[in-house]
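Dear colleagues,

As part of the handover before I leave the project, I'm documenting each prediction I ran so the next person doesn't have to rerun anything. This entry is a single chain, and its sequence is reproduced below.
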Amino acid sequence: MKNAVRLERLSLHTGHYDESWLQSLCYDNPTLLPIEEIEPSFAGIVPICRELQTDSGACDLIYLNENGFITIGECKLWRNPEARRQVVGQVLDYAKDLCKWTYSKLEQECLKARKGPESSLYSVVAAEIPELDEQKFIDHVQRNLTLGRFLLLIIGDGIRENMEGLVQYIQGQGALHFSVSLLEMPIFKGLDDNDLLITPRVLVKTKEIERTIVRVVDHATSTSLPQPGEPVARTVSEAVFYERLALARGKNVADNLETFLDDLRKDLGLLCKLGRGIRLSLNIKSPNDTYNFGSIQQNGEVWFYGSVTNTDRLGGKQIGLSYLKDLALLVGGELDTSLSEWVWGVKRHQQYMKVDDYLTHSSEWRRLIQKTLQTFQQAEDA
């Protein structure tokens, strides 16, 4: 391209571009952090404080969202591999400290670190989200503290560690319901000397929550192991999705869906991807992440984003239509084409049907997905 310009990457080891500057950047501009890409249930973060004092030291950054999910950020400029591992251990220690706190303790320490006029954590978050329910917010924060449900962000520059080894180290350390992500924050000088171009990159994130479960209740610690055959959620957000689905449609439905999707993952290689946003959904995707077999919402409704349009782009529109028609026949619904092709799907009486209706025919649904996937793959190979 004739107008392409190579930008100069700034070193964060010289001048005023240091760890403190990076910390301020992330605190003042929370939308820089790609939270939805890492853990959708933590999205919508509100900066709470910097330098939160814990028994293990001062934690760089604390964020909360409207559902009481806590994000812990640690900014580090990587100078050697040992420093990288040390900071991982440090942020895990912060999480273990916080899980012993009550809401009142968290509020007290955060307001002390914040040094602002606010009288409560609720007022800090409500200033950004006015419709926030105070009691629900407090209950959600306390529950996440008790369960140790945190998103741990390690934010640095030029991270070059062996990522697989680092993830194994992370998963061998803790037993809380946390997720850990390493973010690289490359910063370039813009065309104007006063402009900066910042391109955050998610380098790695843990995929499984924990092997052991630790809960702290009234400062007493209990440890348990997952029972044989018990479905294990892959991320905090996936666990939250199944909890919300259980509230909406019953625990039996949530358990059956988890088993059904686990089988699709193992046997057909399908992807089960969380949609972005605080209102969670789980999308059943083809192994190449192109075709959507259904999007289960947290209230149990099943939508169909792009089931027709995505195959149409590959010359296989009829594959998507056939799948939806056969599925409608299976569950006693009808194909709804009243809106744009992107949202064509199965409804009954103009309403989205619930996942219960589909799981009643789980074996037939699985066979239909397998048949459609094979047809789709044949069309790709043709």
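The first helix runs from residue 19 to 28. Confidence is low (pLDDT under 50) at residues 208-232.

All the best with the project,
I.
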